[in-house]
Amino acid sequence: MSSRLAFDLDCNRVMPECGFECPKCIQEIESTLTTIGGVSKVYIEKEGQEQKLIVEHDPGAVTVEQLIHVLKGLPSFYEGFFVPTVIA
């Protein structure tokens, strides 16, 4: 059974001018998460100025904690750049 999680990836504490818009970061997030067993789909959802990362996954195969752990290590060229928070 697939579940849908929304994450806020706050990078403003580290790079205030970034705004989570860097194509290189987004590409790495999507390509890394889709290689995890149980993750079926990863995409960015925009609502006005708000952006969130959507991860569709099988909670029996990968936990929220595992996803958060992976996100904290991204992007690899600056580990710790994102502070992930589950918002839905």
Span between N and C termini? 17 Å
Strand content: 25-35%
- Uncertain regions spanning at least 5 consecutive residues: none
* Class by alpha and beta content: alpha+beta
* Sheet with the most strands: spatial strand order: 2-3-1-4
By DSSP (H or I, 4+ residues per run), the number of helices equals 2
Shape: globular
General description of the model:
The chain has one domain (3-86): Alpha-Beta Plaits. A hairpin with a 2-residue loop joins strand 2 and strand 3 (50-57). The model has no long low-confidence stretch (mean pLDDT 84). Helices cover 23% and strands 33% of the residues. The relative contact order is 0.29. Strands 2-3-1-4 form a 4-stranded antiparallel β-sheet, covered by helices on one side. With 88 residues, the protein is of the alpha+beta class.
List the helices and strands and how they pair.
Blueprint: E1 3-10, H1 23-33, E2 39-47, E3 50-57, H2 64-72, E4 83-86
Antiparallel strand pairs: 1-3, 1-4, 2-3
Which descriptors would you attach to this protein?
88 residues; alpha+beta; Alpha-Beta Plaits; four-stranded antiparallel beta sheet; 2 helices; 23% helix; globular
Give the gist of this structure.
The chain has helices spanning 23-33, 64-72; strands spanning 3-10, 39-47, 50-57, 83-86. It contains 2 helices and 4 strands, in the order βαββαβ.
